Backbone:
C-alpha cells in the first residue's frame, strides 16, 4: 500500500507515526511518501520517510489502485483548501487511528480523519470526514463532530455535544454536555463552553466569551 502524506511538518509526522503503528498491527507492507510546499526534499528527522515533492508533484506519484491520501494538516481552513484541491485526483483518503486510541461500540470515524494516541471516543459517536482528534482528547457518548473539525490535545467534550463543520477547539478546552459549537468557531486554549455558541467567531476564557476585535479608526475613535 502506498500512502501519500499531505504535509511533512510536526503534526504530519505524528499522523505518519500513528499510521505506521496502525499498519504494523495489520501486518501488511506499505510505503509512505511526504509532500509539502514548505519543507525541503529529503529524509525527515523522525525517520518516518522522505519528503519527495510539493503538492503540485503529488499527482505524478499516483499509480493504479494501491494509493491513498493521508491528511497531515491540522488547521480547519487549510484542511478545507487542500482536500478541495486534491478532490480531482479521485483517490481515497486513509483514516488513521493510533492503536493506543480507544473507539467504543457504535461509533463511526469518517474518511480521512485522524484519532491520535491516548484519545477516547466512547459510544454512539459520529465523527465526520477530515476530523482531527488529537492526543488525549475525550469525545463522550452520542457526540456528533462534523467534517473538518479539529480538536487540539486534551480537549474534553461532554455527552450529546455537536461540533459543527470546521470548528477548532484549542488545547485543554472543555464543552459541557448537550451544547452546540457553531461552524468555524474557534475556542481558545483552556476555554470552557457552558452554553451553546455561534459560529464564525473566536471565544476565550472561563466561561467562554466572544472576542470582540476593535480597530483604531481615523480621528482617534474606535470602530467595531
Residues:
Amino acid at each position: 500500500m502506498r500512502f501519500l502524506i499531505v504535509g511533512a511538518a510536526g503534526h504530519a509526522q505524528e499522523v505518519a507515526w500513528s499510521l505506521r503503528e496502525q499498519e504494523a498491527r495489520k501486518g501488511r507492507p506499505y510505503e509512505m511518501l511526504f509532500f509539502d510546499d514548505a519543507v525541503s526534499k529529503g529524509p525527515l528527522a523522525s525517520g518516518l520517510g522522505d519528503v519527495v515533492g510539493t503538492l503540485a508533484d503529488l499527482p505524478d506519484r499516483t499509480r493504479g489502485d494501491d494509493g491513498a491520501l493521508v491528511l497531515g494538516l491540522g488547521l480547519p481552513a487549510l484542511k478545507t483548501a487542500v482536500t478541495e484541491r486534491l478532490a480531482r485526483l479521485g483517490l481515497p483518503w486513509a483514516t488513521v487511528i493510533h492503536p493506543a486510541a480507544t473507539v467504543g461500540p457504535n461509533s463511526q470515524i469518517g474518511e480521512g480523519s485522524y484519532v491520535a494516541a491516548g484519545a477516547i471516543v466512547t459510544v454512539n459517536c459520529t465523527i465526520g470526514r477530515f476530523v482531527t482528534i488529537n492526543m488525549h482528547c475525550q469525545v463522550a457518548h452520542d457526540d456528533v463532530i462534523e467534517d473538518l473539525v479539529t480538536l487540539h490535545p486534551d480537549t474534553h467534550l461532554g455527552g450529546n455535544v455537536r461540533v459543527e463543520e470546521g470548528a477548532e477547539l484549542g488545547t485543554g478546552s472543555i464543552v459541557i454536555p448537550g451544547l452546540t459549537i457553531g461552524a468555524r468557531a474557534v475556542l481558545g486554549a483552556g476555554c470552557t463552553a457552558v452554553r451553546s455558541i455561534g459560529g464564525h467567531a473566536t471565544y476565550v476564557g472561563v466561561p467562554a466569551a466572544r472576542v470582540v476585535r476593535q480597530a483604531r479608526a481615523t480621528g482617534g475613535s474606535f470602530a467595531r
In short: The first helix runs from residue 10 to 26. Residues 11 and 72 are 6 Å apart (CA to CA). Helices lie at 10-26, 76-86. The chain has two domains: 2-94, 96-207.
